[in-house]
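The methods section describes the discrete structure representation at length, but only in general terms. An entry of this sort, consisting of the sequence and the corresponding backbone structure tokens, reads as follows.
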Amino acid sequence: MTSPPERAETVGERLRRLRIDGGFSQRDLSSPGITYAYISRIEAGARTPSVKALRMLARKLGVTPEYLETGSELGGSQLRELRLAEQELRLRLEGDADLDAVRAVLGEAELLADSDTATRARILLGLAASSRGDHAGVISNLAQVVGSELVSPASRPDVYSTLGRSYAAAGMARQAVALFEGALAELETGGIENTAARVRYATYLSYALTDLGELPRARAVVDEVVAGARAAADPYTQVRLHWSLGRLALEQARPLAALDSFRRAVVLLEATEDTVHLARAHISCAGAVLAVGDGARAAEAHLAVAERLLGEHASDADRAALRRLQAMSAVSAGNPEAAEVLGQEALLFASELPNERGNAWWAIAAARAAGADGDADEAFREAVALLGEYGTVRELASLLRAYGRWLRETGREGEALDVFERAADVAANLAGEHAGAER
């Protein structure tokens, strides 16, 4: 038989306990406007103390008015902040949080016009959504808090970076560009010397510009911060630069240069304990190795390390990229059946990521093209539709060339010619951007 829950101590019972523990009589605590008879009625539960009485009695008893009234040393706002802090630690240390508890705090804060706590609750909900790969959830929460009193580019670069990455992953590259350009401008106009934040924003801005195919602007953004950041003490500054340079090199069809940049990032990250970023660097290395065309074994080694580092709490975005590259590696190794399975897993993880979903369909198409039946048309078409809308210029051009080669190999010359012509048009845009950067 379970015991009944303990009854909460009333304010009168708490007053009596504190008075007796302190060696006070009711007359000792009395003062003008607060008679001992009034104190007696409070202790008996016949009266509710006024705010003034709580303050005066608490001062004499040596406790806070909040404790005398509620039994807690913390006020309402502090209690809400404490509840949020507990959930934030759960998220950061264990990879999850009680989101219902966070939403309850948000509701209370909004009802009581506690804007600071409401902002913190939305930040936590946004970061939790990011850990699940829920980019819509990130955007709905964090877009409401950026630029607020508590959230500036200097004070909360994690919020800006998380929101910008979700914009990009959701196919909203222009919103990501606007966010990061605004953050950089605010750091500049405010005279804030924060090299790490500046490089973080510039790196993500270069990613978003690259996704839009605006390579000259992307390169210019990186070049602008490289010289000033070379001597930065923070290793992540260097890591972000190498990572950004590697992505640009891939977009410009220079996989060996990209691989060199990614390897430099790995070396720097191995000196830190940030296993997630190290895993992502290995994933980038694997992508660059596969782009060279003859590195399946080396790619598999990078991907094995990445999978081990990501562990059980990897985001869907990381899992999708990992499985997709494992599928491509399996195709290169002559194992299309395993590649199909891995590609389907990538597709499941990428359900909310249109760009990554397009790449997953590409991996499935490559697996089917290399398989016994060779029926890859549907998968190629799905990949082209998604990457045509959400992919980068380089991704779409490479995919179209792969699709054209498969159509030609299966005797569909007319369709292959149309696809190759589209690939040439896309590649011309890429080449034009690259030439503009060279001039």
About this structure: The first helix runs from residue 11 to 21. The chain is about 75% helix and 0% strand. Residues 1-5, 431-439 have pLDDT under 50 and may be disordered.
